[in-house]
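ok posting inputs for the iron/sulfur cluster job
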Amino acid sequence: MEGGLGVKTSVLQDGHVSHASFPVSIWRLLQFISVSIVIVCIVGLFVRPDLTLFFIWNILIPVVPLLLFVAPGLWRNLCPLVTLNQLPRMMGLGGSKRLSPWFVAHCGIISIILLLIIVSCRKIVFNDNAVALAGLLIFLALIAIFMGVRYKGKSGWCTSFCPMLSVERLYGQGAALDIVHSHCQPCVGCTKHCGDLKSKLRTSSPVRGKAPMTYLMFFASIFPGFIFAYYLVPDPVMLNWLEIGRMYGYFIVYCSISASIFFLVKVLFRISSIKMTILYGAAAFNIYYWFNAPLMGSHFPLDFQKEVDIAIRVLVGGLSLLWLVHAYRKTSH
Ligand code: SF4
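and the output
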């Protein structure tokens, strides 16, 4: 039930034992580096805005979905916001409050709404305005720390309101690498059906219960459409409310079409909710890299860009097939 520097860690809850395979000290070093990168990015957004915006949106962020798809546990250990959220706990200042039952029941939809707002606002402001992006990063960092001071364990952020939580759950369904959490030393039992403790059961355990599964299914159903809209709908001019309204109108149309196809296929072919969720998770991952492949290829010499573009799309397709098989094998429905 406890961990320490340089030793393997085992945590027991509800009869389930997980074993960390890296010394905690290594994780702490990597977490320090990850928070340092964020601090450098925030400073960079003020002193070298164009270069830092390019680094964040074209190099850093495109790696995150791949990480979540292959090893969500790695992301959960290295995410700088998790580290900041757990910093008070490491310093003995962690909170002891529990979320109210209402928030426990509805944090799933709140985290989805936060993700949709933040990502869609990239098109309005965060893609180009370095000061606004720095403000967002500072705001999120402060919120994560505050929730760590107030609420028990990770319950105030990582397992409740974090905007990435739904993507983690969606992409974590067929993850190949099972990396155990490193933050909770020891576990304080802050979250029911904690996905960190039961990483091997990630397909079902974090979404167990009617409300979480409903939220995950809802998110899965709209997410491919949301990604299409992000890349296909023209960016509005900042503060032009008509254009911004039109952009959100298109987002709603794309998400509605995506959800309609989801439920039509589910009913017509009698596919279970969890299998449809897995299928749409793989689709969203492919759509994201389909649009990002040319962007990633553009970092290579001109002569190779087309080949890199094709290679990324083929690799992503192949990886998704393996992921699909893995995810389907883990579910019995
Ligand atoms: S998030 Fe909460 S329940 Fe999960 S391992 Fe950490 S302390 Fe335990």
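notes: Confidence is low (pLDDT under 50) at residues 1-20, 200-208. The chain has one domain: 10-330.
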